[in-house]
């Protein structure tokens, strides 16, 4: 009977996955801009979004923070949108908008009632074709970014742990920096440098435009050609980032944070690109170790042994490399060394033994659920379509990436743990209150 129930569940999941298929059309404009259209008439909403293949890794070493700065600067106004009017136009037309930056890309989007598709396309074309980049706008956004850094980094507990992990894990690749960058670099940047950054990276051949929602495809294509087709192509962008040497000996480090009272232990490993199957397997391992109160590290360190206030695993997967981080905060007088040993025990188990069939099925169910949820809104679909195209070079991964996760076996999990999560391949960092320095 159990076998029959499991079989029926698998069949139901298969039909559910097929129902979640995202239909889209994609093509290139003559200037190199990639366009992706997704029609969904279930609600009178349309998303217009543009993802640029530029992030913190594209900055000069002495001008960090540029990519994130532009996320702010390009809301200053354009030739046809007055300074301060961008958000007013969006809200007065029943819409909302935002932007975000990572080490690998920058993403802008508007969500409007579907009768305002043309407005969204016009605004994004204005950002690309007619941005106003002047010293007063740079000065204004410089203060905005500084305030953001004070709120999100300088005055937040544990906010610097990733910065300290990255600078120890990466010696050559620009992932060693932070997305928000150094304020001294932005202060030193000239207006000409901001203009040059815009001219190099904010070009149609470095961008993917996604229009998703309640659209007429023929009309959308006409409007896209009208607003974006005339924008000149930019120079091709050559990327040749330095490669990291393998880590062959454990790196020991300490970092200090004035905003914390409880220390933490961090174990970090440099891992492969998000494009690889191994990166997806590491996703599964981190979920197995730390997602929910029934996960391995929580049950052991927090619930059972009561050694830790919090413990977990993070698979930070990025375009060129990944960073896999295991962490724990001690409870009472438990030492960081003892916490590290307890985490090591669980990694060794992963390397030596197959996880149980029950735990494996739970993992598969969790990833099926994530897949369904990621495609449950037109906003999420637009983001995924752009991301898969820009960072993976395969838009259809929005439909097929789940097949990669489905193909992962218990043996794959064991083998990847053996391949990447070894003591001689890692950083062990004590993250300490500054008063202990």
TrEMBL record:
It comes from Tenacibaculum platacis. Its EC number is 3.4.24.-. Keywords: Hydrolase, Metalloprotease, Protease, Signal, Zinc. Belongs to the peptidase M16 family. It holds the Pfam family Peptidase_M16_C. Residues 1-19 form the signal peptide. It is an enzyme of class 3 (hydrolase). This is Zinc protease. The keyword Hydrolase applies. The keyword Protease applies. InterPro entries: Metalloenz_LuxS/M16 (IPR011249), Pept_M16_N (IPR011765), Peptidase_M16 (IPR050626), Peptidase_M16_C (IPR007863). One of its GO terms (molecular function) is peptidase activity. GO terms for biological process: proteolysis. Residues 189-366 form the Peptidase M16 C-terminal domain. Residues 35-180 form the Peptidase M16 N-terminal domain.
């Amino acid at each position: 009977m159990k076998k029959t129930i499991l079989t029926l569940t698998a069949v139901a999941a298969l039909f559910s996955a097929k129902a979640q298929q995202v239909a889209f059309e994609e093509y290139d404009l003559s200037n190199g801009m990639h366009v992706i259209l997704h029609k969904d008439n279930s609600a009178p909403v349309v998303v217009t979004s543009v993802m640029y293949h530029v992030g913190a890794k594209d900055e000069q070493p002495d001008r960090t923070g540029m990519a994130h700065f532009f996320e702010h600067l390009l809301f200053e106004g354009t030739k046809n949108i007055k300074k301060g009017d961008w958000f007013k136009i969006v809200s007065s037309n029943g819409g909302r908008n935002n932007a975000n930056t990572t080490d690998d890309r920058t993403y802008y989007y508007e969500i409007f009632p579907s009768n305002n598709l043309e407005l969204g396309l016009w605004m994004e074309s204005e950002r690309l074709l007619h941005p106003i980049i002047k010293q007063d706008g740079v000065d204004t956004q410089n203060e905005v970014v500084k305030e953001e850094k004070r709120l999100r980094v300088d005055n937040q507990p544990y906010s610097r742990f990733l910065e300290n992990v990255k600078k120890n894990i990466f010696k050559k690749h620009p992932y060693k920096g932070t997305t928000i960058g150094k304020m001294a670099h932005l202060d030193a940047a000239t207006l000409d440098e901001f203009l040059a950054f815009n001219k190099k990276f904010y070009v149609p051949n470095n961008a993917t435009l996604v229009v998703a929602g309640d659209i007429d495809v023929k009309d959308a294509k006409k409007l896209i050609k009208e607003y974006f087709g005339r924008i000149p192509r930019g120079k091709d962008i050559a990327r040749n980032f330095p490669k990291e040497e393998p880590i062959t000996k454990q790196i020991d480090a300490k970092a200090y944070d004035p905003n914390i009272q409880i220390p933490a232990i961090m174990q970090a490993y440099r891992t492969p690109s998000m494009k690889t199957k191994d990166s997806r397997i590491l996703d599964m391992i981190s979920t197995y170790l730390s997602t929910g109160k029934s996960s391995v590290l929580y049950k052991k360190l927090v619930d059972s042994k009561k050694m830790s206030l919090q413990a977990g695993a993070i698979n930070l997967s990025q375009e060129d490399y990944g960073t896999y981080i295991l962490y724990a905060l001690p409870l009472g007088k438990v030492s960081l060394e003892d916490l590290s040993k307890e985490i090591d025990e669980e990694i060794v188990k992963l390397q030596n033994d197959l996880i149980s069939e029950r735990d494996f099925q739970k993992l598969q169910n969790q990833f099926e659920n994530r897949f369904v949820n990621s495609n449950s809104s037109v906003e999420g679909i637009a983001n995924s379509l752009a991301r898969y195209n820009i960072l993976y070079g395969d838009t259809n991964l929005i439909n097929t990436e789940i097949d990669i996760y489905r193909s992962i076996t218990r043996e794959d999990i064991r083998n990847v743990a053996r391949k990447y999560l070894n003591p001689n391949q890692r950083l062990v960092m004590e993250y300490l209150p500054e008063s202990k320095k």
